[in-house]
Amino acid sequence: MDKLILKSTTLLAGILISAPMIITTASAATTGGDYTSSANLTLQAGTGPVDPLDPTDPTNPVTPVDPGTPGASGNLTVDYGSTLYFGTQSISTQSKTYFAHPDMVKDQSNAVKVVPNYAQVTDQSGELSGWTLSLTQASDLHMTTGTSTDPGYALSGAQISFTGGTLLGGNGITAGKPSDVVASGTLTPGVATKLVSAAKNEGAGTWLYNFGDVDAYDASSVDTANTTDHTKVATKSAITLAVPAGLIEKAAPYTTDLYWSLQAVPGNDWDGNTSAVTPTP
Asked: Which residues contact 88 (CB under 8 A, 6 or more apart)?
């Protein structure tokens, strides 16, 4: 009997010792192979200008009611800049401050919408070198006819000022938001005024610089049913025109060009130069 127990124990021990060897052999036999490939894409600089977006909802494309003259196409572009209207005012011998109308755009359903005045820029260069957006008032507001020697030809010393400058990313972009945004300022004729500066690794994509929000403007000063009527007098605005006393004023339209310039230099390197050219009246 003892011999039987001993033989059984020896047999069981042999099975336990050999079992792992059997399992190991089976595992090695089922190992699969592997293979590596890749997915590839090459991007190149895009070309603008791109379509303007709604400054109150910059995911929606719009059509400006009163577009200006676009510059050359490229990968660093000013897509839009508002045209300013201060209404039809009465001649005064005192200093006066006039308020700019809000801007108007047409949405995708062709409905006219009142929005704040704004500028839109796009960087599709892919270089992330930074840029500076500036605005230049070409000259004093002057008459659309006559010459600079005519009495009352120019409103010398009149100043356009702005407040409420803010920046929004177009089409949902938030990464790389430019860090230098000018909130307020006063334009000097013939001198470029910085509005926004993107440092290196900032400013890729589309960005909208708003002059205040729409509530800062007098919406009743524009007529969405008659968008060519610019005669109404606004009572508030994020943009003002201050005309000093003591000027000779004529009963005539006065105007000046506004140049929106986007330079491929970050703000710290910008020396105030702009590609805008001041015309001779």
From this structure: 230, 231, 232, 233
Structure tokens at 129: 């070198």
Q: pLDDT digit string (tens) for 181-198? A: 999 999 999 999 999 999
Nearest to 122 by CA among 42, 206, 60: 206
Only one residue has tokens 């109150």, namely 56
Are the CB atoms for 101 and 237 separated by under 8 Å?
yes
Nearest Cα neighbor of 202 from 277, 111, 101, 127 is: 127
**Under DSSP, is residue 240 helix (H, G, I), strand (E, B) or coil?**
strand
A 10 A CB-CB count for 86 gives: 22
Q: Residue 128 in contact with residue 262, Cβ under 8 Å?
A: no
- Residue from 61, 69, 168 nearest 105 by CA: 61
Question: Two tokens at 149?
Answer: 């020697």
pLDDT per position as a tens digit, 100-127: 999 999 999 999 999 999 999 999 999 9
Instruction: State the burial class of residue 68 (Cβ atoms within 10 Å of its Cβ: 0-12, 13-18, 19+).
Output: middle
Q: What is the 3-state secondary structure (H, E, C) of 105-166?
A: EECCCCCEEEECCEEEEEECCCCCCCEEEEEEECCCCEECCCCCCCCCCECCCCEEEECCEE
